[in-house]
């Protein structure tokens, strides 16, 4: 009761306590104000960190089956995301910058008639070219899987005009329905709004997790070479529609009619090689090793020494077997491979000339295993 | 000469000089604002001097002003100290206004939609200056308000202030208590995080139990806006929170205060007999006038209480924000808000309708009718032993039921799930998994085992114990473990090779030691249990911690292990008569910037 009398019964004490309390509130609010920007930044950083953690869990449960637990992709199934090309890292950039600078200087000193310097620059350029070639050689495992050291940015190759964040977010959100034509299964749409199972915040978490793979300038060629699958680029419709189009074979055309149609064209193995490894049909995306689909090497050998000996192909020619395998892949699945993986739409996208070219190319694959 | 039909300020300056004219102008303005008190009157009041003119200008604001006409011009001296009111009624009113003001600020940044509500919270926390401050104040005020209103009711009971003629005041107070609890409860959902969704889901599920089923089903649909709480439910809770319940609360606050003024604040039990109307009979020597004493006291209390709240939210309290609400993921250990734990506890006693609906309704009815049942003729403590005894029994019951409402009580979860939860759980209810706050630097990449802490049979040699564990795992068990890690936990490891915990990671050591201890606490449910903690680094700045428990499977019935005659568990055997080993595990990721501890947003 002493406190009661001391503080509450005397008017001047009440005024004093109230005033001091009010001033203390002002001081504390000022203190919070001073620290507010740092606190907000800290919260944002902390929240991003926790978002990455949640994204990691989602990636493990939803994405790792196709993109790999370590995010380096799965051959013939889905591209690696833990991958310098998605972040646009150019291993040759430093050398190319030096080469450009030297070429510029060379033009200038050559105009000035400074032949000594020209000679020096040529020597330096030769050294750089050697280093460049060496780097590209080191990247051969990745190059063999479709990586292009000269054009190492996936966003640039796609002509993507927005940010990498938006590219990843929109890809997860909407999926890639058309990717069925070049992957064994299409990238599904994950957003609940698009029929998937993930909320917008989960899409954001996944995006943040994938973006956290970026190593900036610290990417190494070893990491590049450990990527198991690089992106396959879909055909650009603008280039397809340019110029006269040949009629397609037709996905429902019988093999007998297809063989009749093929009689009018002559296959070009070189053109077939380009088609086989190009983005239009993306054959090499799956037939790159013997995991998802049979290896391209030795195709013709296997056709002649194994398939045609099978009674169900009695009367078939090698060309007929190959044409049927391309246009009607469901007719027969090579032993040891899952049925139904190969797209059935090539008949509607491929002309007789293109089919003949690819068959001609496959006939050159007569390596003995 | 002014062109106006009345003298202007310039005329006054010409006539009286600038200083005098200005002072008189200020005086007039102050007198109009205070509805009767000029500067001199205020000065005298604040100095504690008697009024120097008559009629007493300090009574005029009560007679002529809008705001003070609601307040009595004087109080009885016996109610102006700490006892008997403890300022609890005043504090309750303070929180009504405090919550309204802070709530309005939050409304500016909030949209009641599941699509954006959680993002709004993040924005308030990360992008709105003072956003977290106001949110913390609002949340703290909400919790405090429930507590203060409840204590106010208790005080009213113990001082017998609900007795004649204040029975209806008590009734309106019960309505205010219900409104306060429902205000707090409806606000719980708005952040749209896991804590919100599941606490409200539990609360709202009681509505569904209302008999008959057709009523329960439709009430549930009305409240939630669908079978589950979604966009409609969130909007409804928001509207209840900001419109409907506050409207009822403000109306009944008016009714309640009107009754308080009509009958006067009840005096301490020893000074007032039943049926006395203190408001109309305060002796002159007992009067404490509103101006200046009560007014300065209230302003002081506003400053002091606000300071206490500001101090608390600056250093000690932050409103929780858990992960985004997810209908598909029920967190282990979900409970209702603390003030509804007594109902959750009662629900564990049995029938949902009886304990979830009928029992709380009876409690409310009982509270309402207390003044009409307890018609004894004295308010003095010594004469109310029976009422006090009943009250203490009921309070004890309330505390016990609330304890029963905790997830620790009576909720059966398998021991392995419980341990994994305790090790890895995300922050919730001011608690998080044992391994989660381990500093990032101490999360050393490697495969560790609880066998490190069971070295008795190896003479205390850790290396031998771990080597023994590696040998025990090698072979079939390693294959099973690797398959589990790869396919179930999606962890890419190619071999199992346990290593000793590093000595320079003491908190990791403590965490694994806790795990080693916990798995031995269930010898009949998880016999021969051991566990491994596997730490990997999937990304720069991100580590992954997998905890896997392995034990011999035993027969379980109704969540309880079956025991043989000698009290030993009955093992499940395969076709060759060998024991079957069970595996369960879980994963967490820790980013170096996550800052588990300090609390989120600190």
Walk me through the structure.
The complex is a heterodimer of chains A (369) and B (602). Chain A is mainly alpha-helical. Chain A has 3 domains: 1-88 and 153-232, Cytochrome c-like domain (Cytochrome Bc1 Complex, Chain D, domain 2, Orthogonal Bundle); 93-138; 237-363, Cytochrome Bc1 Complex, Chain D, domain 2. Chain A contains 17 helices and no strands. Chain A has helices at residues 2-8, 11-67, 93-112, 115-138, 140-144, 154-158, 164-174, 200-211, 221-225, 237-241, 255-262, 269-277, 283-286, 299-305, 318-327, 346-349, 352-363. The longest helix of chain A is centred in the first third of the chain and has 57 residues, at 11-67. Chain A is flat, with a radius of gyration of 31 Å. The N and C termini of chain A lie far apart (101 Å). In chain A, 30% of the residues are buried. Helix content of chain B is 51%, strand content 8%. In chain B, the strands form 3 sheets. Chain B has a 4-stranded antiparallel beta sheet with strand order 3-4-5-8, sandwiched between helices. In chain B, helix 5 (88-108) runs antiparallel to helix 7, helix 8 packs across helix 9 (194-208) and helix 8 packs antiparallel against helix 11. The longest helix of chain B is centred in the middle third of the chain and has 33 residues, at 231-263.
Major sheet characteristics of chain B: 4 strands, antiparallel
Q: CA-to-CA gap between the ends of chain B? A: 65 Å
Strand content of chain B: 5-15%
The H-level CATH homologous superfamily of the largest domain in chain A, spelled out, is Cytochrome c-like domain
Query: What is the string of SSEs of chain A from the N terminus onward?
Result: HHHHHHHHHHHHHHHHH
Which strand order spans the largest sheet of chain B, edge to edge or round the barrel? 3-4-5-8
Query: Architecture of the largest domain in chain B, CATH level 2?
Result: Up-down Bundle
Helical residues, percent of chain A: 55-70%
Q: Look at the helices and sheets of chain B and give the structural class.
A: alpha+beta
């Amino acid at each position: 009761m002493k406190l009661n009398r001391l503080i509450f019964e005397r008017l001047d004490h009440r005024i004093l306590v109230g005033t001091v309390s009010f001033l203390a509130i002002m001081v504390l609010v000022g203190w919070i104000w001073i620290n507010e920007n740092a606190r907000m930044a800290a919260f944002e950083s902390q929240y991003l960190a926790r978002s990455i953690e949640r994204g990691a869990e989602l990636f493990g449960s939803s994405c790792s089956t196709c993109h790999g637990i370590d995010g380096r992709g799965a051959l013939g199934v889905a591209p690696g995301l833990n991958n310098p090309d998605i972040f646009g890292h150019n291993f040759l950039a430093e050398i190319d910058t030096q080469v450009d600078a030297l070429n510029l200087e060379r033009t200038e000193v050559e105009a000035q008639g400074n032949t000594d310097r020209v000679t020096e620059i040529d020597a330096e350029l030769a050294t750089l070219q050697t280093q460049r070639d060496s780097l590209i050689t080191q990247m051969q495992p990745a190059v063999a899987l479709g990586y292009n050291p000269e054009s190492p940015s996936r966003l640039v190759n796609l002509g993507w005009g927005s940010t990498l964040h938006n590219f990843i977010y929109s890809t997860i959100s909407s999926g890639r329905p058309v990717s069925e034509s070049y992957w064994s299964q299409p990238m599904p749409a994950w957003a609940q709004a698009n029929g998937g199972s993930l909320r917008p915040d989960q899409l954001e978490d996944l995006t943040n997790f994938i973006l956290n793979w970026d190593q900036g300038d610290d990417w190494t060629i070893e990491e590049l070479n450990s990527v198991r699958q690089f992106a396959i680029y879909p055909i650009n419709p603008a280039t397809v529609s340019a110029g006269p189009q040949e009629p397609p074979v037709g996905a429902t055309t019988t093999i007998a009619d297809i063989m009749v149609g093929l009689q009018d064209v002559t296959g070009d193995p070189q053109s077939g090689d380009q088609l086989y490894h190009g983005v239009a049909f993306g054959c090499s995306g799956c037939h790159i090793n013997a995991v998802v689909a049979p290896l391209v090497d030795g195709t013709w050998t296997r056709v002649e020494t194994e398939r045609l000996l099978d009674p169900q192909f009695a009367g078939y020619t090698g060309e007929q077997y190959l044409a049927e395998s391309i246009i009607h892949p469901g007719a027969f699945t090579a032993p040891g491979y899952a049925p139904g993986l190969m797209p059935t739409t090539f008949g509607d996208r491929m002309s007789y000339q293109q089919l003949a070219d690819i068959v001609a190319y496959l006939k050159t694959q007569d390596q003995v295993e | 000469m002014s062109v106006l039909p009345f003298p202007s300020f310039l005329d006054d300056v010409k006539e009286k000089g600038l200083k005098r004219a200005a002072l008189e102008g200020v005086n007039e303005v102050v007198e109009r604002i205070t509805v009767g008190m000029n500067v001199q009157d205020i000065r005298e009041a604040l100095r504690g001097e008697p009024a120097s003119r008559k009629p007493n200008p300090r009574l005029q604001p009560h007679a002529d002003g809008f705001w003070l006409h609601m307040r009595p011009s004087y109080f009885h001296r016996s109610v102006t100290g700490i006892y008997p009111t403890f300022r609890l009624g005043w504090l309750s009113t303070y929180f009504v206004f405090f919550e309204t003001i802070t709530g309005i600020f939050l409304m500016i940044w909030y949209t009641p939609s599941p699509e954006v509500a959680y993002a709004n919270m993040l924005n308030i926390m990360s992008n709105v200056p003072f956003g977290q401050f106001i949110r913390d104040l609002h949340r703290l005020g909400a919790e405090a308000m429930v507590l203060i209103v409840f204590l106010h009711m208790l005080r009213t009971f113990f001082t017998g202030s609900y007795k004649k003629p204040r029975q209806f005041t008590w009734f309106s107070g019960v309505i205010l208590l219900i409104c306060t609890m429902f205000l707090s409860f409806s606000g719980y959902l708005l952040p749209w995080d896991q804590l919100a969704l599941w606490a409200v889901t539990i609360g709202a599920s009681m509505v569904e139990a209302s008999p008959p089923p057709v009523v329960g089903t439709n009430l549930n649909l009305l409240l939630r806006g669908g079978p589950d709480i979604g966009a409609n439910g969130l909007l409804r809770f928001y509207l209840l929170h900001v419109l409907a319940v506050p409207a009822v609360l403000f109306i009944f606050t008016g009714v309640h205060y009107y009754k308080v003024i009509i009958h006067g604040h009840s005096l301490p039990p020893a000074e007032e007999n039943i049926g006395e109307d203190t408001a109309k009979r305060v002796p002159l020597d007992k009067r404490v006038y509103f101006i200046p004493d009560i007014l300065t006291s209230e302003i002081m209390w506003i400053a002091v209480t606000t300071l206490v709240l500001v101090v608390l939210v600056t250093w000690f309290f932050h409103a929780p924000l858990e992960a985004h609400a997810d209908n598909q993921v029920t967190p282990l250990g979900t409970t209702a808000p603390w003030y509804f734990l007594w109902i959750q506890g009662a629900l564990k006693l049995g029938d949902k309708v009886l304990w979830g609906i009928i029992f709380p309704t009876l409690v409310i009815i009982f509270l309402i009718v207390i003044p009409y049942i307890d018609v004894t003729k004295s308010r003095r403590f010594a004469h109310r032993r029976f009422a006090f005894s009943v009250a203490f029994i009921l309070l004890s019951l309330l505390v016990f039921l609330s304890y029963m409402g905790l997830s620790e009580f009576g909720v059966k979860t398998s021991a392995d799930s419980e341990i994994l939860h305790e090790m890895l759980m995300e922050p919730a209810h001011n608690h998080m998994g044992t391994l989660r706050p381990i500093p990032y630097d101490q999360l050393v990449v490697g495969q560790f085992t609880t066998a490190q802490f069971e070295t008795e049979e190896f003479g205390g040699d850790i290396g031998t114990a771990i080597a023994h564990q590696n040998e025990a795992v090698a072979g079939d068990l390693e294959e099973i473990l690797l398959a589990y890690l790869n396919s179930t936990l999606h962890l890419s490891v190619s071999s199992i090779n346990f290593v000793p915990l590093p000595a320079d990671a003491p908190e990791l050591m403590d965490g694994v030691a806790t795990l080693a201890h916990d798995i031995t606490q269930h010898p009949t449910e998880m016999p021969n249990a051991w566990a491994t903690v596997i730490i990997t680094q999937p990304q720069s700045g991100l580590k992954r911690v997998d905890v896997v428990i392995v034990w011999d499977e035993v027969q379980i019935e109704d969540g309880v292990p079956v025991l043989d005659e000698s009290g030993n568990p009955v093992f499940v055997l395969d076709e060759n008569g060998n024991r079957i080993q069970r595996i369960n595990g879980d994963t967490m990721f820790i980013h170096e910037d996550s800052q588990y501890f300090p609390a989120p947003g600190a």
